[in-house]
Design brief:
The protein has 267 residues and is α+β, with helices and mostly antiparallel strands. Helices cover 19% and strands 30% of the residues. The protein is built from five helices and 15 strands.
Length: 267
Protein backbone atom coordinates (compact mmCIF):
# COMPACT_ATOMS: atom_id res chain seq x y z
CA UNK A 1 0.00 0.00 0.00
CA UNK A 2 1.45 3.32 -1.03
CA UNK A 3 1.26 6.07 1.56
CA UNK A 4 1.30 9.84 1.67
CA UNK A 5 4.46 11.15 3.34
CA UNK A 6 5.06 14.82 4.11
CA UNK A 7 8.17 16.30 5.74
CA UNK A 8 8.22 19.99 6.73
CA UNK A 9 9.59 22.32 9.40
CA UNK A 10 7.23 20.81 11.99
CA UNK A 11 8.35 17.21 11.47
CA UNK A 12 7.56 14.16 9.36
CA UNK A 13 3.97 13.01 8.84
CA UNK A 14 2.24 10.08 7.18
CA UNK A 15 -1.26 8.98 6.17
CA UNK A 16 -2.47 6.09 4.05
CA UNK A 17 -3.11 6.55 0.35
CA UNK A 18 -6.82 6.49 1.21
CA UNK A 19 -6.37 9.79 3.04
CA UNK A 20 -6.59 10.98 6.64
CA UNK A 21 -9.98 9.40 7.35
CA UNK A 22 -8.97 5.74 6.94
CA UNK A 23 -5.80 3.74 7.48
CA UNK A 24 -6.95 0.97 5.12
CA UNK A 25 -8.65 -2.43 5.47
CA UNK A 26 -6.05 -3.85 7.88
CA UNK A 27 -4.33 -0.65 9.00
CA UNK A 28 -4.57 1.73 11.93
CA UNK A 29 -2.49 4.38 13.66
CA UNK A 30 0.03 1.80 14.87
CA UNK A 31 0.68 0.30 11.43
CA UNK A 32 1.00 3.82 10.01
CA UNK A 33 3.43 4.77 12.79
CA UNK A 34 5.65 1.78 12.04
CA UNK A 35 5.66 2.69 8.34
CA UNK A 36 6.60 6.28 9.22
CA UNK A 37 9.39 5.24 11.59
CA UNK A 38 10.90 3.14 8.82
CA UNK A 39 11.07 6.20 6.55
CA UNK A 40 12.99 8.50 8.89
CA UNK A 41 16.44 8.09 10.51
CA UNK A 42 16.18 5.86 13.60
CA UNK A 43 16.99 6.84 17.16
CA UNK A 44 15.06 6.91 20.42
CA UNK A 45 11.33 7.63 20.39
CA UNK A 46 8.93 8.83 23.08
CA UNK A 47 5.44 7.25 22.91
CA UNK A 48 3.60 9.15 25.62
CA UNK A 49 1.62 11.25 23.13
CA UNK A 50 0.80 8.29 20.89
CA UNK A 51 -0.53 5.31 22.83
CA UNK A 52 -3.68 7.05 24.07
CA UNK A 53 -4.94 7.42 20.49
CA UNK A 54 -4.91 3.71 19.58
CA UNK A 55 -8.32 2.22 18.83
CA UNK A 56 -7.56 -1.15 20.38
CA UNK A 57 -5.07 -2.63 22.82
CA UNK A 58 -2.28 -4.58 21.16
CA UNK A 59 -1.87 -8.20 22.26
CA UNK A 60 1.87 -7.50 22.49
CA UNK A 61 3.32 -4.46 24.26
CA UNK A 62 3.60 -1.35 22.12
CA UNK A 63 7.30 -1.03 22.97
CA UNK A 64 7.91 -4.58 21.76
CA UNK A 65 6.03 -4.10 18.51
CA UNK A 66 7.90 -0.92 17.59
CA UNK A 67 11.36 -2.11 18.67
CA UNK A 68 11.07 -5.46 16.85
CA UNK A 69 9.50 -4.05 13.69
CA UNK A 70 11.80 -1.01 13.34
CA UNK A 71 15.30 0.14 14.29
CA UNK A 72 13.95 2.58 16.87
CA UNK A 73 14.33 2.25 20.64
CA UNK A 74 11.53 3.35 22.94
CA UNK A 75 12.59 5.77 25.70
CA UNK A 76 10.17 7.80 27.81
CA UNK A 77 12.80 10.54 28.12
CA UNK A 78 13.50 10.79 24.39
CA UNK A 79 13.09 14.21 22.79
CA UNK A 80 11.80 12.76 19.53
CA UNK A 81 8.05 12.37 19.96
CA UNK A 82 5.65 10.09 18.13
CA UNK A 83 2.24 11.70 17.65
CA UNK A 84 -1.13 10.54 16.38
CA UNK A 85 -4.03 12.73 15.38
CA UNK A 86 -6.88 12.29 17.86
CA UNK A 87 -9.59 12.09 15.19
CA UNK A 88 -7.90 11.34 11.89
CA UNK A 89 -5.53 8.61 10.79
CA UNK A 90 -2.39 10.73 10.61
CA UNK A 91 0.82 10.08 12.53
CA UNK A 92 3.86 12.31 12.96
CA UNK A 93 7.35 12.49 14.41
CA UNK A 94 8.40 15.84 15.88
CA UNK A 95 10.82 17.31 18.40
CA UNK A 96 8.04 18.85 20.52
CA UNK A 97 5.66 17.27 22.98
CA UNK A 98 3.00 19.79 21.95
CA UNK A 99 0.39 18.59 19.42
CA UNK A 100 1.73 19.41 15.96
CA UNK A 101 0.02 21.23 13.14
CA UNK A 102 -0.85 18.33 10.86
CA UNK A 103 -0.55 18.85 7.10
CA UNK A 104 -3.41 18.28 4.69
CA UNK A 105 -3.58 14.91 2.92
CA UNK A 106 -5.53 13.96 -0.18
CA UNK A 107 -8.58 11.73 0.42
CA UNK A 108 -9.74 11.16 -3.15
CA UNK A 109 -9.19 7.38 -2.90
CA UNK A 110 -11.34 6.88 0.18
CA UNK A 111 -13.95 4.11 -0.17
CA UNK A 112 -16.38 5.28 2.51
CA UNK A 113 -18.70 2.26 2.22
CA UNK A 114 -15.89 -0.28 2.63
CA UNK A 115 -14.40 1.75 5.48
CA UNK A 116 -17.69 1.77 7.36
CA UNK A 117 -18.37 -1.93 6.76
CA UNK A 118 -14.88 -2.96 7.89
CA UNK A 119 -14.94 -0.69 10.93
CA UNK A 120 -18.05 -2.51 12.16
CA UNK A 121 -16.55 -5.91 11.31
CA UNK A 122 -13.37 -5.14 13.26
CA UNK A 123 -15.39 -4.00 16.27
CA UNK A 124 -17.37 -7.24 16.30
CA UNK A 125 -14.23 -9.33 15.79
CA UNK A 126 -12.25 -7.74 18.62
CA UNK A 127 -15.14 -8.02 21.07
CA UNK A 128 -15.72 -11.70 20.25
CA UNK A 129 -14.05 -14.87 21.46
CA UNK A 130 -12.06 -17.01 19.04
CA UNK A 131 -13.95 -20.01 17.70
CA UNK A 132 -11.12 -21.17 15.50
CA UNK A 133 -7.43 -21.92 15.99
CA UNK A 134 -6.94 -20.16 19.31
CA UNK A 135 -3.44 -18.82 19.95
CA UNK A 136 -2.70 -18.00 23.57
CA UNK A 137 -1.48 -14.60 24.70
CA UNK A 138 1.68 -16.26 26.05
CA UNK A 139 2.44 -17.74 22.62
CA UNK A 140 2.00 -14.36 20.96
CA UNK A 141 4.48 -12.87 23.42
CA UNK A 142 7.06 -15.61 22.86
CA UNK A 143 6.92 -15.48 19.06
CA UNK A 144 6.47 -11.75 18.49
CA UNK A 145 10.12 -10.70 18.26
CA UNK A 146 10.97 -13.42 15.78
CA UNK A 147 7.88 -12.99 13.64
CA UNK A 148 7.66 -9.19 13.56
CA UNK A 149 11.40 -8.77 13.11
CA UNK A 150 11.93 -11.72 10.71
CA UNK A 151 14.60 -13.13 13.01
CA UNK A 152 15.49 -16.82 12.63
CA UNK A 153 17.05 -19.33 14.99
CA UNK A 154 20.31 -21.11 14.19
CA UNK A 155 20.20 -24.88 14.67
CA UNK A 156 22.93 -27.26 13.48
CA UNK A 157 24.17 -24.88 10.78
CA UNK A 158 20.71 -24.15 9.36
CA UNK A 159 18.20 -21.39 10.00
CA UNK A 160 14.84 -22.17 11.55
CA UNK A 161 11.78 -19.96 11.12
CA UNK A 162 9.03 -19.49 12.29
CA UNK A 163 10.28 -19.73 15.89
CA UNK A 164 10.05 -22.96 17.86
CA UNK A 165 11.35 -24.24 21.15
CA UNK A 166 12.55 -27.71 20.09
CA UNK A 167 14.08 -29.13 16.91
CA UNK A 168 13.07 -32.44 15.32
CA UNK A 169 15.40 -34.28 17.71
CA UNK A 170 13.63 -32.79 20.71
CA UNK A 171 16.58 -30.55 21.57
CA UNK A 172 15.98 -26.99 22.73
CA UNK A 173 16.88 -24.30 20.20
CA UNK A 174 18.39 -21.00 21.27
CA UNK A 175 16.49 -17.77 20.70
CA UNK A 176 16.38 -15.96 17.34
CA UNK A 177 19.60 -14.22 16.34
CA UNK A 178 19.77 -14.22 12.52
CA UNK A 179 18.07 -11.56 10.39
CA UNK A 180 16.17 -12.78 7.33
CA UNK A 181 15.92 -10.81 4.09
CA UNK A 182 13.20 -8.21 3.64
CA UNK A 183 12.16 -9.87 0.37
CA UNK A 184 11.00 -13.43 -0.30
CA UNK A 185 9.95 -15.50 -3.34
CA UNK A 186 6.43 -16.88 -3.76
CA UNK A 187 6.42 -20.67 -4.02
CA UNK A 188 2.65 -21.02 -4.20
CA UNK A 189 -0.49 -19.22 -3.09
CA UNK A 190 -4.17 -19.75 -2.44
CA UNK A 191 -7.28 -17.64 -2.00
CA UNK A 192 -9.96 -18.68 0.46
CA UNK A 193 -13.48 -17.72 -0.49
CA UNK A 194 -15.54 -15.69 1.93
CA UNK A 195 -17.41 -18.84 2.97
CA UNK A 196 -14.21 -20.84 3.44
CA UNK A 197 -12.26 -18.33 5.53
CA UNK A 198 -11.35 -19.21 9.14
CA UNK A 199 -13.73 -17.94 11.81
CA UNK A 200 -11.29 -15.17 12.83
CA UNK A 201 -11.79 -13.57 9.42
CA UNK A 202 -15.37 -14.62 8.67
CA UNK A 203 -16.79 -11.16 9.31
CA UNK A 204 -14.29 -9.34 7.09
CA UNK A 205 -13.78 -11.93 4.35
CA UNK A 206 -17.10 -11.26 2.56
CA UNK A 207 -16.32 -7.53 2.48
CA UNK A 208 -12.83 -8.19 1.12
CA UNK A 209 -13.93 -10.83 -1.37
CA UNK A 210 -11.92 -13.57 0.34
CA UNK A 211 -8.53 -13.92 2.03
CA UNK A 212 -5.26 -14.79 0.25
CA UNK A 213 -2.15 -16.47 1.64
CA UNK A 214 1.27 -17.07 0.13
CA UNK A 215 3.94 -19.66 0.86
CA UNK A 216 7.30 -17.94 0.44
CA UNK A 217 10.97 -18.85 0.62
CA UNK A 218 13.64 -16.52 1.97
CA UNK A 219 17.07 -16.28 0.37
CA UNK A 220 18.55 -17.70 3.58
CA UNK A 221 16.48 -20.89 3.27
CA UNK A 222 13.49 -20.77 5.65
CA UNK A 223 9.96 -20.89 4.27
CA UNK A 224 6.83 -19.42 5.77
CA UNK A 225 3.15 -18.77 5.15
CA UNK A 226 1.87 -15.19 5.23
CA UNK A 227 -1.48 -13.58 4.66
CA UNK A 228 -1.54 -11.17 1.75
CA UNK A 229 -2.26 -7.58 2.75
CA UNK A 230 -5.99 -6.91 2.64
CA UNK A 231 -5.72 -4.07 0.13
CA UNK A 232 -3.84 -6.09 -2.48
CA UNK A 233 -6.03 -6.19 -5.58
CA UNK A 234 -3.58 -8.11 -7.78
CA UNK A 235 -3.17 -11.87 -7.79
CA UNK A 236 0.19 -13.25 -6.63
CA UNK A 237 2.41 -15.00 -9.17
CA UNK A 238 4.65 -17.99 -8.49
CA UNK A 239 8.31 -16.85 -8.43
CA UNK A 240 7.17 -13.29 -7.81
CA UNK A 241 8.63 -11.26 -4.94
CA UNK A 242 6.93 -9.98 -1.81
CA UNK A 243 7.99 -7.62 0.93
CA UNK A 244 6.46 -7.41 4.39
CA UNK A 245 4.55 -4.84 6.42
CA UNK A 246 3.06 -4.86 9.90
CA UNK A 247 -0.72 -4.98 9.64
CA UNK A 248 -3.66 -6.07 11.74
CA UNK A 249 -4.08 -9.85 11.66
CA UNK A 250 -7.24 -10.38 13.68
CA UNK A 251 -9.02 -9.33 16.85
CA UNK A 252 -9.79 -11.60 19.77
CA UNK A 253 -10.84 -11.30 23.42
CA UNK A 254 -10.65 -7.51 23.40
CA UNK A 255 -7.14 -7.41 21.91
CA UNK A 256 -5.73 -6.70 18.47
CA UNK A 257 -3.14 -9.09 17.08
CA UNK A 258 -0.53 -7.58 14.75
CA UNK A 259 1.85 -9.35 12.42
CA UNK A 260 3.63 -9.23 9.10
CA UNK A 261 1.62 -9.51 5.92
CA UNK A 262 2.98 -9.95 2.42
CA UNK A 263 2.83 -7.07 -0.06
CA UNK A 264 3.39 -7.81 -3.75
CA UNK A 265 6.45 -6.16 -5.27
CA UNK A 266 6.17 -4.45 -8.62
CA UNK A 267 7.31 -6.79 -11.39
Amino acid sequence: MSRQFISNDDGAFLASHYGPHWAGPDGDRLTLAIALLKQVPAGEINLQCFEQHLEYTSSVGLDTVIETATNWKVNEDATTILHAHSEEFIVGVTSSIEPPTYPTFDDSKLDAEMRNDLTIAWQEEVSGVSQGAYVSQAQHMIASASRLGLRAQSDNDRLVWPPRQLNEAGERIQGPTEQLSELATILTWTRLSAAGAPSEFSGRAPILGGVSTVLVEFEEGPKGVFMLADDESRNPEIDGLVRFEVRRLYGQDGLMHYGLKAVLCES
